Fold this sequence. Notes:
Blueprint: E1 6-8, E2 21-23, E3 28-30, E4 37-39, H1 43-50, H2 55-65, E5 69-72, E6 77-81, H3 86-100, E7 111-118, E8 121-128, E9 134-136, H4 143-149, H5 156-163, E10 178-181, E11 188-191, H6 197-211, H7 228-243, H8 260-271, H9 278-292, H10 299-308, H11 313-316, H12 321-327, H13 331-348, H14 356-365, H15 371-378, H16 388-414
Antiparallel strand pairs: 1-2, 3-4, 4-6, 5-6, 7-8, 8-9, 10-11
Helix pairs in contact: 2-3, 5-16, 6-16, 8-9, 8-10, 10-13, 13-16, 14-16, 15-16
Amino acid sequence: xxxxxxxxxxxxxxxxxxxxxxxxxxxxxxxxxxxxxxxxxxxxxxxxxxxxxxxxxxxxxxxxxxxxxxxxxxxxxxxxxxxxxxxxxxxxxxxxxxxxxxxxxxxxxxxxxxxxxxxxxxxxxxxxxxxxxxxxxxxxxxxxxxxxxxxxxxxxxxxxxxxxxxxxxxxxxxxxxxxxxxxxxxxxxxxxxxxxxxxxxxxxxxxxxxxxxxxxxxxxxxxxxxxxxxxxxxxxxxxxxxxxxxxxxxxxxxxxxxxxxxxxxxxxxxxxxxxxxxxxxxxxxxxxxxxxxxxxxxxxxxxxxxxxxxxxxxxxxxxxxxxxxxxxxxxxxxxxxxxxxxxxxxxxxxxxxxxxxxxxxxxxxxxxxxxxxxxxxxxxxxxxxxxxxxxxxxxxxxxxxxxxxxxxxxxxxxx
Length: 415
């Protein structure tokens, strides 16, 4: 970010410790008479702080002032025709931030613009990374036409999702779009997200099987044994694994049945089936975790993965992604979550083995699990959370997703 004075992105927030800041917008008047124009020298830096293309706020100024605008992205030169006072443009920038940056729900600027298309109808929404909410913008504003014609450039992860032919599911159940890079200037064009999550899972399994037939997963080999004895054994395994996550060493060697982790696991199991709203239960669950004083502990993720989900985990997981996103704050947390996944599908719900790629995809798309962590986990068998054979089987099941990650990376390198 360029040197110079900075201000809060929300200038109505009078807090010198406010974490979201941007350079103070500056202007320079050039030309005379009919050729007079206002140049914004640091527009690129301001836009970078807002995570928006600099052409968007520049065009917004033009819409509000009824003036022509021009952009030279190569030379970072952004112009509004006419002579305009810096304070006036700063006020307009506040309007742009309110309408196209801030989350309507939590007023946090940590959002991405996403274009949804349904038939001929297109809608622009703000996808908040802070609270998980998706809120629409006023489609009556003239700037929306410009945004639809010049959609935001995708990030590296967005490109991978597009290569898989899928769209990330929002907390409310909406589907975000996929994009093609077809126009002459490299701007992404929007098309329908036609494939469902189930179709995605089938697709990546099929593609991986074509590359290496040995990676194909046969669900029949993992059919859940529902006999009373098998159920009893799985419940015993869960109780043992819960106890193994005591307050002792990181390897879980201390088996304390009275530890907060064991108590949390039992509380979740006793209450999860009476849930009327997963969102409400997420709040109650987080309060319970705070009550035990383990909301920042990585072992908490290990317990939640085992206790929260049932054989319907592939559908249940979407409702709890916001909770996991709030609690997973480090690589250590991610590894504990993956350990919980091993125990969930390897010990408690063997019928979920074929769904491992889909479960990983959900966490990956929600920015809860990082590519490097998944890859390292998937290529190193470990006995930390389950026995060696179970660890191998779970990682074997994850191979289609790992192959997809590797191929997407290769595609980006080629580009």
